[in-house]
Amino acid sequence: MDTARSTLFAKIWDRHKVVEREDGQTLLYVDRHYIHDGSRRAFEVLAEKGLKLRRPDRTFGTPDHYVPSSSRDISAIADAEARAMVETIEVNAARHGATVFGLRDPRQGIVHVVGPEQGLTQPGITIVCGDSHTSTHGALGALAFGIGASEVAHVMATQTLWQRRPKSMRISVEGRLARGVFAKDIILAIIAQIGAAGATGHVIEYAGSAIRGLSMEGRLTVCNMSIEAGGRAGLIAPDETTCAYLAGRPYAPKERDWESALAAWRALPSDDGARFDREVTLDAAGIVPMATWGTSPEHAAPITDRIPDPSTAPDAQRRAGWEAALAYMDLAPGTPLDAIPIDRVFIGSCTNSRIEDLRAAAAIARGRKAVIPAWVVPGSGLVKAEAEAEGLDAVFKAAGFEWREAGCSMCVGMNGDLVAPGQRCASTSNRNFAGRQGKEARTHLVSPAMAAAAALSGRLTDVRRMLAEG
């Protein structure tokens, strides 16, 4: 196949195409299928049809959505249905020969943290999972996207998936980030600019000097929220940062295979002159710490701004959306974002629960005291152990933060970790939809450093002030 002037996305898609129908549907081969505790029904479908898992060696999982963050005790899960979800993934994995990092395994955690951490996520491969934030894995140059329940069963049975080829979009962020500005601020600024539907029907490739300057943790954060911009997937071309991150990880290639893999990965980036269906460019120097004020990730603004007046919305549809959002959030136009009171803080989720995220939050918390309840939920058992080895847990505890066990926790609240009705939560998660963190809960999306600052001040706060004080 001639890949001259091809995009990274096109190279991966074309190499995994089994067949393409006249109606435009393409059957793609799936290299990695990640599963979590919500996969029970798909295994039931296999049993009903008398089918076996097609490629157990390409199926990996971990319970994350329903697991308790207070302990590793399955019996502590009060809801019988949720408890069955957590128990069944290990039973099904053993029955079919798949690899699952169970609740008592130190490698357990959020599936989108565990995959890269174990070296399972690699450049140039296709990855699917029954979770919309599978786009996270694109940070390592993989084509990764979420699928529905029926599609999960199809992949289990065939190791393939029917998909319609998306368009391509490149978002370039050029320049250097200022102190106190993080990857979360980049992606919130992007979504605020292009809108929550701005990348609909597209696979996004993030590029530019600011993106290349991010650590792997930062890249994972950016790609994680591609779905919040409407994208089908997000990608960042593999480079030396990618290779250094993967080197020595348990499932990464070894010895001679490593050298072959490096050669293949270095050929993946989009060719000079490759054409994208859409291009967007942002100036990194113009990005400041961000926070959301409404009920969509596109309702994001610099912490130095005020809540917009719906009368200034560009069209009637968005005016109505802003009005509904402000009514739900109980906020008034013109209110400074840094005057919004916060009732509790959540630091975690597949967006921001890695070691770098915890270090950034701990740097703000060190030597200070929280004035509202604040939880820190590591993304995996290994992240938790690393943080504890560095003494980050002690920093958080001394500041009055609660140090929890790994899992999705309060991001979506399927395990009972909820924000109370009417309360405001400064959250490092990815969605601020009405009711996302609990009935009538109000969510403000921020970076880990900004979340820590909110815990210490009791309101949305420009973290740069605390950095200047520290």
Quick overview:
With 470 residues, the chain is an alpha/beta fold.
Structural overview:
This protein is α/β, with parallel strands linked by helices and 470 residues long. The chain has two domains: 8-279, Aconitase, domain 3; 336-469, Aconitase, domain 3 (2-Layer Sandwich), CATH 3.30.499. The protein has helices spanning 8-15, 40-49, 80-96, 111-117, 149-158, 183-194, 209-212, 216-224, 240-246, 255-266, 316-329, 355-365, 381-389, 392-398, 448-457, 463-469; strands spanning 17-20, 25-29, 32-35, 59-61, 99-100, 126-129, 143-146, 160-164, 167-174, 202-207, 233-236, 278-283, 290-292, 300-302, 344-347, 374-376, 402-403, 424-427, 442-445. Helix 2 crosses helix 5, helix 12 (355-365) packs parallel to helix 14 (392-398) and helix 12 runs parallel beside helix 15 (448-457). The longest helix is centred in the N-terminal third of the chain and has 17 residues, at 80-96. The mean pLDDT is 97.
